[in-house]
Amino acid sequence: MPETPDPTPDPALLYAPHGEPGRFFCPWRPWRNRFLDVLRWKLGGKSPYDRKTPPRIPRVDNDGAYLNKEGEPPSVTWIGQSTFVIQDGDVVLTDPHWGARALLPRRESPPGIPLAAVPAAAFAVLSHNHYDHLDAWTVGRLPAAMPWFVPLGLGAWMRRHGRPQVTELDWWQSARHGRWTLTCLPAQHWSDRLGTRRNATLWCSWLLDNGERRYYFAGDSGYFHGFAEIGRRFPEIDVALLPIGAYEPRWFMRPQHMDPREAVQAFRDLGARFMLPMHWGTFDLTDEPVDLAPRVLAEVLGSDERVRTLAIGERWRVP
Questions:
Q1: 47: Cβ–Cβ under 8 A, 6 or more apart, which residues?
Q2: 125: part of which helix (H) or strand (E)?
Q3: Are 28 and 8 in contact (CB under 8 A)?
Q4: What does pTM read for this prediction?
Q5: What is the pLDDT of residue 7?
Q6: Which tens digit of pLDDT belongs to each residue from 176-194?
Q7: Distance between CA atoms of 283 and 280, rounded to whole angstroms?
């Protein structure tokens, strides 16, 4: 079973050495997903959730034509899972995934816009190498010259897949792309992929700053004290893109995936103006129904206009 975390981790651990390509770890919460824990999860008994009712995943039609127009207002479009298209002068993709599967789980709803709508001048950030975040089919069909910004260790994978325009960053390192400053930040997660040793490549979150607005993209993460530190280091975040799904059973998923209540706390820790939930409604990865997370989120929040749960394909204009 995963270890119990220190209830008051030292913020200095967010800046501590955390490995090197081939072997990374979270200094504030070392843990590993043991095979026996996976067996306990999968064979441990009947799920308490009703799986007979088909999920209801809201979706709006969107051809994405506005992405190739100049002078458009700042906006964020949800494609599904952890994929957003940010249009704010330039076009930025987060964990781009238009594929039909995440290795084995099939896609529950088509992507929010056609892949062909992505402009040739777009660029992308990646959080880690799990199959619901890094999709080889999508990478191979996006423009070959697209710049990619990735955590340490993922550059080799990108180059093997014919994408040489890749910049690798460690936690707290930044790179410039035009008017954007892209900062790689800690996350509480792990990495694994067929043909790659577990935790051989780093995982991260991102702060995307174009000088007028700041966007925080959490990638995949359990709740941790890093959100408060990131909010302290980068005040006045405009939009936080935070995961809310794939969280059951808690005894197994808590270190790696937030539930809706923890995501709300992360939003508050960050001090962001707005939150857009993600990581639900696309791939059925864990015990809870794939459409449950936003309903739980609504119960946790009550009425809060700062949190906007998008339909797949919905374009939200940044106020």
A1: 287
A2: strand 123-125
A3: no
A4: 0.95
A5: 61
A6: 999 999 999 999 999 999 9
A7: 7
